[in-house]
Amino acid sequence: MTFPRTFSHIGISVTDLDQAVEFYTQTLGWYVIMPPTEIVSDDSAIGVMCNDVFGEGWGRFRIAHLATGDRVGIELFEFKDAERRENNFEYWKTGVFHFCVQDPDVEGLAKKIVENGGKQRMPVREYYPGEKPYRMVYCEDPFGNLIEIYSHSYELTYSAGAYQGDAE
């Protein structure tokens, strides 16, 4: 029988691990589970596991583990020779192109993201203008990773038929 799995964690690549830890702890309130640590390619259990994941020749990287208020893990990676993508919004290509957080003060969190080195990509929009207070906006962290902000839970937003207009 298939049942809905819970979300454990997401890995996010950044160009400056220390700056990323500061951004996410200060801006989103996530807390540090494991501070920045260097991982090297060697015969240790983690070294062998990383060879399996990244292939031979990855050398070394730095990682920090954070957690959200609802216990979802955030792995922040800073790889050797890390670089920011020129076009960080190739939404038509496969892969994760954003993650979403929930905050009833969408505008306030978007402002805080900008104040802490991020970017607001669009105006705050309403799903049901004049009908329900569901709002959203896309932002970026200082490294170009996209952060969407919802005012309400995913279930509330979509169970009401956000894209179907008036259901009759």
Helix-strand sequence: EHEHEEEHEEEEH
Beta percentage is: 25-35%
Over all CA atoms, what is the radius of gyration?
A: 18 Å
The major pleated sheet works out as:
5 strands, mixed
The oligomeric state is single chain
Low-confidence stretches: none
Q: What structural class should be given to the helix and strand makeup?
A: alpha+beta
Mean pLDDT value: 92
Quantity of strands, as a count: 9
Structure description:
By secondary structure, the chain is an alpha+beta fold. Helix content is 22%, strand content 29%. The chain is built from four helices and nine strands, in the order βαβαβββαββββα. The strands form two sheets. Strands 5, 6, 7, 8 and 9 form a five-stranded mixed sheet that branches. GO terms for molecular function: lyase activity. It holds the Pfam family Glyoxalase. InterPro entries: Glyas_Bleomycin-R_OHBP_Dase (IPR029068), Glyas_Fos-R_dOase_dom (IPR004360), Lactoylglutathione_lyase (IPR019883), MMCE/EMCE_epimerase (IPR051785), VOC_core (IPR037523).
Secondary-structure topology with pairs:
Elements: E1 9-13, H1 17-27, E2 31-40, H2 45-54, E3 60-67, E4 73-79, E5 99-102, H3 106-115, E6 119-120, E7 125-126, E8 135-140, E9 146-150, H4 154-159
Parallel strand pairs: 1-4, 5-9
Antiparallel strand pairs: 2-3, 3-4, 6-8, 7-8, 8-9
